[in-house]
Amino acid sequence: MAGANARLRARAVRWVSDKPFPGLIEVELTDGSGKLWTMVDKYPIFDRDGILTPSTNYPVNIDIACTILDRGDERVLVSTAEPWGIETVDGRHEFVMRPDQVFDDELGEDH
After folding, report:
1. Can you give the residue range of the structural domain that contains 22?
2. What is the mean pLDDT of each run of 10 residues along the chain (111 residues)?
3. 41, 93, 94, 96: which sits with the fewest CB atoms below 10 Å from its CB?
4. pTM of the complete model
């Protein structure tokens, strides 16, 4: 189901800075091969539940919004460029994930 809205499990690991407003958070994402990726962006992009603050006890499990580009039996290609423009500190926004790491928003269930 290419183009579907989905979520990836990740971990917010630390509050980086109060500037620029409203504050930056560091997030780690592990892809389907076990490689760890680091993302730093404004905290509301990652905070669906209002739990990330400078005084939060990190790490915290979170979800990252993404778009499914391609789905196979053993892998799912996703992009974090849509809908929020999320990318790693080195500019990567496409990841190959295992199917159990991708949660379809449109279906309202985990797949």
Report:
1. 5-110
2. 82 96 96 98 91 96 95 95 95 97 67 37
3. 94
4. 0.87
